[in-house]
Amino acid sequence: MIYADYNSTTPCLRDIAERMLDIQCVEFANPGNRASLSGRKARGVIDTAREQLARAVGAHPDELIFTSGATEAANTIIFGVMERLLADRPRILSSAIEHPAVCMPAEHCARAGADWVELPVDSQGRLDLDALRENLTRPTALVCVMAANNETGVLQDLGEIVRLSHAAGALVFSDMTQMLGKMPFNVHTDGIDFACFSAHKCYGPKGVGAMYKRRGLALSPLIRGGGQEEGLRSGTENVAGIAGFGMAADKAAREVHSRKAQLQRLTKQLESQVLRHLPGVVIQSGDVDRLPGTSMFSLPGIRGKWLAQLPGIIASSGSACASLQGKPSHVLRSMGVDPETAMRSVRISLGTPSTEADIREIATQLITGGQKLS
Question: What are the strands of the beta sheet with 91-95, ordered from one edge?
């Protein structure tokens, strides 16, 4: 089997897993026990990981809060902002192609009295900036726009989104889960106020993530208890997972340019081969800047699910969350793709272990399957 679903999850690197095992079995002290040497060492492990992640994303260490994943981080940010600002700025804006970890808490806020608006995107998946401007004329608390889409890879113009939002007094939250290790970025330079990250998208462990909160901003915590993580994420820290995340982020930052070049080269090879033999294929968001390594293929008019024709390939038809529901991708639907085509599209997402031999086999199966169904 050839793995081609790296946007869903990446394998944890062996040296990271081995370091985590040592922490779990040998250096297992509670980091909250500052009175003991072992506890202080555990706290030092967390501090080191926070510094590694901070360097990787361009933040100050005290602007990062560790969580159980990007979903928890997104929920904490959205609920935390809206709890504080709902009375004065009841509006929350999000792009129509956000991950469920963003649009579902936004919908919940709407049921609690917020004014939630999903902003349209064009046929390439880019946010409609005119719609953003129009909706910012009313008091808005938060604008949520992901930096890179997990299904199509489309990259948004964060600079302009931040400029427009801040001019209207709104805060900006960007889901940057797919960016780490694929594209260079800096949260301070980008000007965003909040961001979320996940370790298992950059060759770290599952079950650990982080949120970025710009200095000077306040949030109401989602999880209350012992006051860990500056009171914003109570509960004994996942020391091993956090250490693994720090290592993965450090490696991702050091290798980002070589990884980006590799993924761009392999993506170009894959797409050119498929386009050569399936002239009717559509590469979603193919005419704009995209995340390297992400290709969403659609073949209008086929009779059957294309993904089912790829027995030797582990891929997907969209996000893992959408696949569980058996529904067409809301991302593609928001871009104007008809439901049948959306259901029969295939996302190939590549990673650092991907090889040219993998690309040839993936292309062969995509072409054979597409021709069979046409």
Answer: 64-67, 209-213, 194-198, 171-175, 140-144, 91-95, 115-119
> Please, which residues have CB within 8 angstroms of residue 312's CB and are 6 or more apart in sequence?
1, 2, 361, 365
Residues 289 and 199 in one domain: no
Could you list the active site residues? Answer: 321
Token pair of 252, please?
Answer: 């991702």
- Return the H-helix or E-strand segment holding 217: none
Q: 228 and 302: one domain?
A: no
pLDDT tens-digit profile of 168-189? 999 999 999 999 999 999 999 9
pLDDT digits (tens, 9 = 90+) for 222-239: 999 999 998 999 999 999
Residues 29 and 121 placed together within one structural domain of the fold: yes
User: Which of 323, 336, 250 has the alpha carbon at shortest distance from 285?
Assistant: 336
- Nearest Cα neighbor of 8 from 283, 255, 316 is 316
What is the spatial distance between Cα 257 and Cα 260, in angstroms, rounded to a whole number?
5
Strand residue runs (E) in 26-104? 64-67, 91-95
Which structural domain range is residue 279 located in? 2-8+256-373
Q: With contact defined as beta carbons under 8 Å apart, do 306 and 362 qualify?
A: no
- φ, ψ at 237 (rounded to 5°): -65, 145
State the total domains in the chain: 2
| Same domain assignment for residues 88 and 228 | yes
